[in-house]
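Chapter summary example.
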Amino acid sequence: MSFRIGHGYDSHRLEAGQGMRLGGVHIVCDYRIVAHSDGDVLIHALCDALLGACALGDIGKWFPDTDAKFAGADSRELLAEVLRAVKAAGYGLVNADLSLIAEVPRVSRFIEQMRTGLSELLEVDIGAINVKATTAEGMNATGRKEGIEAHAVVLLSSSAA
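The structure predicted for these 161 residues follows.
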């Protein structure tokens, strides 16, 4: 049995709008994420962590923002494709830990819904998925509500495949 770890990071600008998708969950709020796809920073960071753990590059290589076919793409579909690649490499997810850094929107009431949806997409028990959120305490562009960020860390195992 062998293990692999991966770390992913994503960030996007925010602008006035009518909501966004985070962790696969649509959240109604006064902002939207500026992105080529749906801009789900949690799933994008997760994709990068999974790809990195298997030395398969990054989300920009797999789903370039210069390719029109990914315009408005549902990040859950991108995650499904990444998971297929991870499995093809002989690995399976042991656990994932995701962190959202954002002043807006407040997501605490959506975290369990995110965990449930992600565990289903990743075909693991909900106990293998952790999602947490914090703010930037008013510092930097994220703290000024100009952007949103996410980090993800994953552990993969060849025996979990």
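To summarize the output: The longest helix spans residues 75-88.
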